[in-house]
Amino acid sequence: MSENSDLKSGLKEMIVERLFLKVTPEEIDDEAPLMETYGIDSVALFELVVGLEEVYEITLEDEEFSLDLFHSVNSIAEFIERKRGG
Amino acid sequence: MSGTPPHEERNQRGTRAGREQPLFLESGGSRLFALLHNPTPQPPESSSQPPKAAFVFCPPFAEEEKSSHRTFVDLARRLCDAGCAVLLIQYRGCGDSEGEFDDFLCADWREDIRAGLNFLRESTRAPLGLLGLRVGATLAAEVAEEAPEVSRLVLWEPILSGKQYMSLNLRRKLLRKMLTDKEGSLAAKADETSAVNVVSVAPEERESGIDFEGYWITDQLQSEVASIDLLAEIQRFKGGVLITQISSQSTPGKAVQSLEGRYRQAGAQVETHAVVEQPIWNLMDLFTAESLVQHTLEWITAR
After folding, report:
1. What does each C-alpha distance from B261 to A47, B129, B232, B256 come to in angstroms?
2. Residue B231: predicted pLDDT
3. Final residue of a domain: which of B179, B202, B221?
4. ipTM value of the model?
5. Staple partner for B140: which of B25, B132, B228, B234, CB 3.0–4.6 Å?
6. Number of domains in chain B
7. How far apart are CA B268 and CA B123, in angstroms?
8. Which residues of chain B are modeled with pLDDT < 50?
9. Would you call A43 and B279 a contact, using CB atoms and an 8 Å cutoff?
10. Which residues in chain A are closer than 8 Å to B188, comparing Cβ atoms?
């Protein structure tokens, strides 16, 4: 499994765990629009941000906040890799 | 919401009717609304059998109080069923208590908690305790430092750093605005709605501050909350402490462990618990925090 695949798998686990979703991580498609598919509201989005910072040890600056960032697992993974300088 | 089946809930109403007493206390010259859950049918002071314990419940801050209210009520009723008295207060400026939210500061709300403690001390002969959530937990911990009559302390997800708390609230506000803008078919641009801008935009008709979901946080309250450093404040409490982390994680995080260490240093008998529950202070939907309520109930009644 590539590093990118590991990252996405870990992200899916975190999303399911932190947002108390009733699906398995494997059921989340890399490109699925998270907000529409899982009804993510501001509370869930906030939990996601806190989770990203805690688990991946990155800091989201105010100017980096955008809904596009949280569109899908792919977009979040790309953001993490960018923050890590990958 | 309650863990009790509906038919049993109905059967219990008759017995609860005499045990739940709304009242107003005096705090700082204003009327403070509270609901007393009294396990005995008579007023506590006239009962030959005092409650096993008497707790003041300290709600969280602003909108979080609304979301978590039902969990407080659920635990209060179950504690009352188990023979404990509970006084669920509404801080001045909140709920049915007198005053406007932005007229008060944390110091006033600590005074409200002390008013609740005084009431329970005078009306029961039970060991006294405090239970709080988020900022309510922090206020409870601060009051307990100065109140030797408090022997039990339950802290649900206490705020350790007021600065971080304010920062996270601003982020949540930003996220909410982004989602609202999206729903309104407006482009949500982070650079237009940054937390910095949120702080600087103040309605002209009010004194400077921040709007947190309809609650006006004055500059003075902001700086008071931001100055909270609970780890530094814990020095004296020697009673029993239950620190409960409420999150998706089943093991206590660093913050909870740090607080546990501080209480141990102070000489308290401290227990930490990580309960896997949704953030009850943020939820708008009806939600049963069963494992949180049950564990807390067991901890309190075991003492």
Report:
1. 26, 21, 12, 9
2. 97
3. B221
4. 0.78
5. B132
6. 2
7. 26
8. 1-2, 185-204
9. yes
10. 66-67
